[in-house]
Prior knowledge:
The complex is a heterodimer. Chain A is α/β, with parallel strands linked by helices. Chain A has nine helices and seven strands. In chain A, about 45% of the residues lie in helices and about 15% in strands. Chain B has two domains: about 220 residues, 3-Layer(aba) Sandwich (Rossmann fold), CATH 3.40.50.970; about 110 residues, Rossmann fold (3-Layer(aba) Sandwich), CATH 3.40.50.920.
Amino acid sequence: xxxxxxxxxxxxxxxxxxxxxxxxxxxxxxxxxxxxxxxxxxxxxxxxxxxxxxxxxxxxxxxxxxxxxxxxxxxxxxxxxxxxxxxxxxxxxxxxxxxxxxxxxxxxxxxxxxxxxxxxxxxxxxxxxxxxxxxxxxxxxxxxxxxxxxxxxxxxxxxxxxxxxxxxxxxxxxxxxxxxxxxxxxx
Amino acid sequence: xxxxxxxxxxxxxxxxxxxxxxxxxxxxxxxxxxxxxxxxxxxxxxxxxxxxxxxxxxxxxxxxxxxxxxxxxxxxxxxxxxxxxxxxxxxxxxxxxxxxxxxxxxxxxxxxxxxxxxxxxxxxxxxxxxxxxxxxxxxxxxxxxxxxxxxxxxxxxxxxxxxxxxxxxxxxxxxxxxxxxxxxxxxxxxxxxxxxxxxxxxxxxxxxxxxxxxxxxxxxxxxxxxxxxxxxxxxxxxxxxxxxxxxxxxxxxxxxxxxxxxxxxxxxxxxxxxxxxxxxxxxxxxxxxxxxxxxxxxxxxxxxxxxxxxxxxxxxxxxxxxxxxxxxxxxxxxxxxxxxxxxxxxxxxxx
Lengths: 187, 351
């Protein structure tokens, strides 16, 4: 396990890919501030290179560890400690839909957005992650799984309320589904 | 066999000979020949090259490759080295061995692409956040670049620490005869199996990190790191001198400037002035004792620190001399370079 600097995991993983046995599995585990803000360049370029790695992207729309600041995926109107009246795109800019954006690139092999707000979706997420690793084992290239997740602490909600928010609000703004799959294109 | 080598390409081939198989870099003048050369050379020897999306990414690729146990390197020039400082701090904090080359240009800001030594503070005092130092070498000829690059990977591995090699646009771009040592047998490289995270099946996790959130743990780590620096200071400090034995005027200079000082020493002696030179080869650890010993000699009247900066290393010279003798400074910056005659004039006329 290598602890990467904030945002740099895809660069670290790209180098490891060239050093270790090609059979070794490599994945990054990154949040939204990490992957879509400070590490946007590393994310996009690892995808452009089509690195044979898996990126697990946990998108809960907020900076959790630093205490609830606005993330690049905080939705319009959603409150955070650095946009206390709710995100105003005119003031704070717009959020980014990473799965859709990365699906425009030639490099990635598989891009899916999943969520974990109930058991059926947890199972779907599990299946997507399994497929991502399967594709890495088959050397098909970069797999990217975005997980729309919750942060009850910084949403100031109970766990159940936060699940409901993810289901009704976040998954509406960040629609679930497969955005790219070269194994489907091959058929 | 000696061949005519351009400085930057000599560094690149010496790294390959030393067993470096991974290079990550981003274009910036005047160091471009290093990534250009390694982009075709590394694949020839079974290694890999990535032109990273930024210097920030390149240094983090070094972190990844070093953490996975590989001999690896990056190079850049001053503004790009600034971008690498965060990664270098993480590399120092995770105790990873690697080599970072800085072919300095002038600053601050975008500055220019002519030779300068304005990155002395950044290189020797840490540069990034937190308590750490890379080992810093400052060769002054192409052959010395080769020899130091060749041994730098061993030093980095021995102490599990980042090693910097600093030159300037003059050394990187000029050509001199140099001999590259034989290709290192990769099976003789140090075994990193006990710590490198390169995929193990023995059930023992190898963890490369620098998060030490408990103050006691972090302080204990820092103390251990600085014990290591004491060891490095004892074993790895390198310094050269020239015509020092009976010198009354002692220049202190490193890298390309040391060569200019040598020419000035020869000219001053021809004119009856006993000049000499102390040339630090390691800038960290600094050869404090060599300078302190010279300061104690009765014949030494004063020191003149000569740099391509507004005065950075002069602070370490003053600390080393510790008030025993006067320490003067002569510098050019912004890409301007002094001539030997300028130094002769300064010694004779004081300006």
